[in-house]
Amino acid sequence: MKEKDRALFNEAIISLGITFETDEQREIAESAFGEMMHMFTVFCRKNKQYGNAFVETGARGTFIEIHAKYARLRSLLWRASDEKIARQMGDIIQNTLDLSVYGVLQCLLVRAGNINGEIPQEDDFNDGIS
Questions:
Q1: How many Cα atoms within 13 Å fall on the side-chain side of residue 37?
Q2: What pLDDT, on a 0 to 100 scale, did the predictor assign at position 121?
Q3: How far apart are CA 122 and CA 130, in angstroms?
Q4: CA 117 to CA 62: how far, in whole Å?
Q5: Is residue 116 a contact partner of residue 58, using CB atoms and an 8 Å limit?
Q6: Are 65 and 101 found together in one domain?
Q7: In contact, 109 and 54? CB cutoff 8 Å
Q8: How many domains does the chain contain in total?
Q9: 123: phi > 0 → left, psi -120 to 50 → alpha, else beta; which?
Q10: Do 27 and 76 belong together in one domain?
Q11: Quick one: 58 and 25 in the same domain?
């Protein structure tokens, strides 16, 4: 885990009052926190690239992305030999992180009541264009 992520982890467990029974529990929690920080970085990078496009498609559109990632992971994990899986670990991890990000987006959309998407107004396409 990066040192700055470790510092954030320590701040989080203190502010949330989280304690661990064993060193192993703490190590697993620290690893999970590191993955979540990576997931957040992926989200920010993609959001910068594509903007809030997920709002346009809503929860139903995001479900299509979730299903595509699920199908890709199923293919990588269940339809391949152990040797091929070992060679594709990077792909498996990346698709799993993408699936996690889509899961977070899905929660945001459902909580906001955005099931079918919000079609941008014509003016939204003209922002900054004279």
A1: 16
A2: 62
A3: 14
A4: 10
A5: yes
A6: yes
A7: yes
A8: 2
A9: alpha
A10: no
A11: no
For residue 2, the SS3 value is coil
Give me the helix-helix angle, 23-50 and 3-16, nearest 10°. Answer: 110
Q: Fill in the amino acid letter for 20.
A: F
The angle that helices 23-50 and 89-111 make with each other, rounded to 10 degrees, is 70
Same domain, 58 and 106: yes
Q: What six digits make up the tokens of 88?
A: 């594709």
Token representation of residue 14: 């203190």
Instruction: Please tell me the predicted confidence (pLDDT) of residue 120.
Output: 64
pLDDT, position 109: 94
Instruction: List per-block mean pLDDT (blocks of 10 residues) for the chain, which spans 130 residues.
Output: 88 95 96 92 89 92 96 93 93 94 94 89 49
For residue 81, the enclosing domain spans 52-118
Asked if residue 59 belongs to a domain, the reply is: yes
Determine, yes or no, domain membership for 1: yes
* Separation of alpha carbons 94 and 53, rounded Å: 20
Can you read off the two tokens belonging to residue 29? 């929690």
